[in-house]
Give the backbone structure.
Amino acid sequence: MSSSFKAPRGTFDALPEKQPARRLVEDTSRLLLERAGYARIETPIFEETSLFARGVGESTDIVSKQMFSFTDQGDRELTLRPEGTASVCRAYLEHGMQKWPQPAKLWYSGPFFRHERPQAGRYRQFQQIGAEAIGSDSPLVDAEMIALLADLISMLGITDARLRLGSLGSVDSRAAYLEELRGYLRANDSELSEEVRGRIDSNPLRAFDADHEGTAKVMAEAPTMLDRLDAADAEHFEVVKGVLDDLGVTYELDPSLVRGLDYYTRTVFEFTCDSLGAQSGVGGGGRYDGLIEQLGGRPTPAVGWAAGVERLVLAMPNQVPEPRAEIFVVADDENRKRALRLVVDLRRAGVSADLDLAERATKGQMKQADRVGAKSCVILDSDREPVVRDMESGEQVSVALSNLVERLSPDAS
Ligand code: AMP
């Protein structure tokens, strides 16, 4: 009988069968990022609400519509983290990481929460892997970061990812461009969706994201930031592109690429997989040179990305096999305790081993050994010496009980 309780709307249970693929994404990320000198950081699942309001931006969808916020018993305004960068920057400042060799290179993995409309590939709790390099304005860091995400995607066997690349300019050049864009939007406001019209002042860039037909038509002709980069921004972008070319990372320039968070400056990028349908973004990020200052620190350039574990798993073409026990110990009634002892000894010797715990008859235990995919089984039978049976070939050898662990452990020749 099932209970009437269900996981909250937009959330899901990642059952054991989903774990091998999820673990592969996390293990591959850790290997790749730690090999590149990124150290893991864990930050709290909830933060002060104002951290995200100030960091991500009041007018963004994330802050204005999607945060799970609550007031705690001490009247503090808290929010389940909708993204990782603001928290990592808060930690950078709180722990004086400016004194570390710069850039501080950090990575994270964990759950994030957004009150979005659930659909395939879009959840209210999802897992992100992210990386941040804080304290360098070198375009080489932008390129390194993008190459890392490209490599992660290809190590997972995903071959249909496209990289879109753009630049949003620096804070100053963007301010001038945004004024120009506002003027253009106002001049065409009768064609725009109501939502875009309402955001001309607060967030005109989001007009590039709109699905609304009239808006899309207006935006096709709109001035783009890529055409308005100042000399320093343009030079920075040229170096990023040149290094990516050198590294063999292919990209498409996308002048309309604006990401849903306010803090980005200069380089922005996004990897998409068309096979995923509407929710095609597997990961993205960019430079956020103004964020640390926005949070109260000294001006500190930084760049980072985040990738969605569920989307990466959906995009992975290959099934990831479930781990299987190497040895399954089958025992008649007199040998059940001995079987447990053997299993524990095998595990202590580094062998994955399992046994029947449902009091099945030996025939049922053999079936169970098959079901769990064991490579071999050991049969403990009071009438004869223990037998080791290769489950694939059916080949059997007798081995004295006292020699079993040594015989089956990985160092056995
Ligand atoms: P963002 O922080 O919005 O740049 O998102 C980075 C990545 O996280 C996206 O490319 C997605 O892969 C993933 N992601 C963001 N929001 C969700 C969501 N609601 N459900 C599942 N994955 C998400």
